[in-house]
Design brief:
By secondary structure, the protein is α/β, with parallel strands linked by helices. The protein folds into 3 domains: about 170 residues, ANL, N-terminal domain (Rossmann fold, 3-Layer(aba) Sandwich), CATH 3.40.50.12780; about 120 residues, ANL, N-terminal domain (Rossmann fold, 3-Layer(aba) Sandwich), CATH 3.40.50.12780; about 120 residues, ANL, C-terminal domain (GMP Synthetase, Chain A, domain 3). It is globular, with a radius of gyration of 21 Å. The structure holds zinc ion. The site of zinc ion has 9 residues, from loops.
Length: about 450
């Protein structure tokens, strides 16, 4: 099997953690201030066993001070790659990476994919549903022997299906909700696409009805990967035991902790916090992802992997949106209608200063509510543009803005960035009603 990165021993992981913490303290104001306030000496952090003495970091803590607080001293944001995300808590996060960090992140993904499919070159990949950016919108991207076909969400479905059939990809990657839409459209049209070697499901939780449909339509295995925009790949599904995941030690160290940041015992469910082992421009150290998992201990697995084992129990979870004409759209399209109204490319502007957190809710067939926790520079200036974007989805959609002081869900409820409250095919095939969907994932008290 072709591997792109050497196996990382625990000694190397410990060294990476020492380096990450000491460099973050030396170069990043946010970490220096946080550790000084907590009376922590970075030299005392020698590896994974010492991590629990560092405070956990939430999105809002990290973002509130702006780039001068969370970027390494001397970074020039205009020269860095930028990604926007909201993760599973509704707080906007701007992620900066240098060119090298971005390249390494891609290699880490390829290395993780090779666990399932023995990646070979030339390699053709179809990426289903990435975000289209104004300066980076080519459908076909070639880097040496790597060909990537990007099926942006605004490409008409027939064209997407045509591209999938034409490409005969080795691998198809994407969010499960978007892969499901494409697979369903193929099934409804009676199209049997070329069989890829593997489908990689990323970013959102992979549910059984999606795995079953993808296997039926594409006739290939489906592997579940746990990833986030902030760091990249965090874990991959064990090739032998599909209900387990192995953390990606090339990239991050994962801890599963209780409310106070202490590790839970083996077999216990808790919050997932991550430490990025390589990114120096914008370090993430004991960063709360908003997801939950179970620590299953460590050892030599039947798949040959030697190291930690976990299970992801809560991550990004979506419901589809029903338009007034009855058609159903992916929640990402509704998210884009709101998010693309924000001037992300203005260098003097940060979403977090205007909006601390937001949630998009479909209350009824024609009513979209955006709940907003306003930031210090909040203004109403975005909403006319959001209304225009909604009208493009359907002219009868109406928008209500509600300013709220907090979007933390009540105990036992899970936060959904886009919450669709109407019944639709996605949740019916999942075997739930809309109300059951909203209540389904009851967080435990930890
Ligand atoms: Zn395994």
């Amino acid at each position: 099997m072709l591997r792109f990165l050497p196996r990382k021993s625990m000694n190397i992981v410990n060294r990476c953690i020492r380096d990450a913490v000491s460099q973050a303290y030396r170069n990043v104001a946010f970490y220096r201030n946080t550790y000084d306030r907590a009376g922590i000496r970075p030299a005392d952090i020698r590896g994974i066993d010492d991590l629990p003495s560092l405070p956990t970091v939430s999105r809002i803590d990290l973002m509130a001070g702006g780039p001068s607080s969370y970027l390494a001293h001397g970074s020039r944001p205009e020269t860095l790659s930028v990604k926007q995300t909201t993760g599973t808590t509704g707080t906007p996060v701007t992620v900066y990476m240098s060119f090298c960090e971005q390249a390494f992140r891609k290699i880490v993904f390829l290395d993780a994919y090779s666990r399932h499919a023995g990646v070979k070159f030339p390699l053709s990949v179809v990426d289903v549903g990435p975000e289209r950016k104004s300066l980076d919108d080519a459908i076909l991207v070639r880097v040496g022997p790597h060909k990537r076909v990007r099926l942006f969400r605004d490409i008409p479905m027939n064209e997407q299906i045509h591209l999938i059939c034409k490409t005969k990809a080795f691998m198809i990657v994407g969010r499960p909700s978007i892969l499901w839409e494409v697979a369903l459209a193929m099934k409804d049209r009676g199209i049997r696409p070329p069989r890829p070697r593997i489908i990689i499901s990323n970013v959102e939780m992979l549910f059984g009805h999606v795995r079953a449909l993808l296997t039926e339509v594409f006739g290939c295995p489906v592997a579940d990967y746990y990833s986030c925009e902030e760091v990249g790949n965090l874990a991959w599904q064990c090739p032998v035991h599909p209900d387990r995941m192995h953390p990606n030690l090339a990239n991050a160290w994962i801890e599963i902790v209780d409310r106070s940041g202490r590790p839970v015992g083996y077999g216990q469910s808790g919050r997932i916090v991550i430490t990025n082992l390589y990114n120096r421009t914008m370090p993430f150290i004991r960063y709360c992802t908003g997801d939950r998992g179970i620590d299953l201990g460590e050892g030599v697995c039947d798949c040959g992997f030697h190291g930690p084992v976990m299970r992801l129990t809560e991550g990004r979870d979506v419901n589809f949106i029903v338009l007034p004409d009855g058609s159903e759209i992916n929640p990402r399209n509704l998210y884009d209608a709101v998010n693309f109204a924000f001037p992300h490319d203005r260098p003097d502007w940060n979403l977090i200063d205007s909006i601390r957190a937001f949630q998009i809710i479909q209350e009824t067939l024609d009513r979209i509510v955006v709940k907003v926790v306003p930031g210090p520079q909040y203004s109403e200036v975005f909403w006319p543009k959001v209304r225009k974007h909604l009208a493009a989805l359907h002219p009868d959609l109406k928008l209500n803005i509600e300013l709220v002081s907090d979007l933390t869900p009540p105990p036992g409820r899970k936060f959904h960035q886009v919450l669709g409250k109407l019944d639709n095919r996605w949740i019916r095939e999942r075997g739930e009603s809309a109300d059951q969907f909203e209540r389904r994932t009851r967080s435990e008290s930890i």
